[in-house]
Predict the 3D structure of the following.
Amino acid sequence: MNVSDIKRIAVVGAGDMGHGIGEVAAMSGYKVNLYDIKQEFVDKGLGKIKESLAKQVSKQKMSQADMDAIMGRISGFTVMKEAVKDADYVIEAAPEILDLKLKIFKELDEVAPKHTILASNTSNMSITKMGEATGRPDKVVGVHFFNPPAMMLLVEVIRGKTSDETMNVSRDLVLKWKNFRGTMVPVMVEKDTPGFIFNRLGAPVGMYLGYLLDKGMVVPEAVDAKMRTMGVPMGPYETMDYTGLDINLHGAEYFAKMLSPDFAPGGWLKKMNEAGTLGKKTGKGIFEWPGGARPTIDMSKADPNFDPMDLICIQVNEGTKLIEDKVAKDAAEIDKAMVNGGGAPFGPFALAKGMGWAKVAEKCSDIAKKTGIKWFEPTEMLKKGNITI
């Protein structure tokens, strides 16, 4: 199959990610079949797409005719077989429950045409296992969009038991897609691993920030203010609130199970979840979110003792693990993921290069000693400075 053979996209799941992916596919000229288990869910997803496009029209960034054309390319379905019978590419965007995804992939394999590529938008779960639930593992791939798809450029293309053809077609498809910010950016994840690239580099940073909070060593607002002085659009603690402290808890538990017990969630995170203060979605988390509006961060409170390079060095160290394990081909691919997924002007390797890799390794070693967490110990690649960027 070539990317030119793809005419119709089916999206399984009309929730926040699903309808966002459907919106971007339709904006890029594809016919879209949007499926969910109930008509009310489909209608809600279609309504959200219409609302999103209407905002662009009101800002005079899109014509009404263009909006009508985009909406005209999207059809809603509540019967899986009908939704995928004429699809060339299917993207599953169901809740992050592995058993549910395996069930969906088994059904998709039975009802989708034999040539159809089956993709998952999972942010963490095994593409390999999803492929094994089908009779076409070579045509099963991860395409991890970031929230919201209509604004975020990064798409991780993840290999399970995926063929080179499916990986290449998926990469080329992403390159043909445009959202409100520009052309989507594919990053190739060559090995199925927990967290893939972007979330994997974020996991040890979250572990470190959680440790500091548990030990009473930082004030979240002060850390976020300091990070924003570096040009980061949203500080790390605010980001935790934004994504949801329940999501952060589940992520920490997943990494603890799949990678190392070091990732086990700390007491503060468990307490916040028990109290139901989950961040933006509940109006309160680490910060207050009045009416869902972003918290006010007082930049004058920036912590003079917090070194943002600690987080960068942790990310670089984690990135070298992915390169050593052949998950990512090189540091440049990792930086591309981090820039386009998080909005920072530079990736961690580009930021840390000027320090010298020996100093980066030394800082990671110091963090490991300070926290007693072995995961932060520098890799052999980092210690040897065998990094090209």
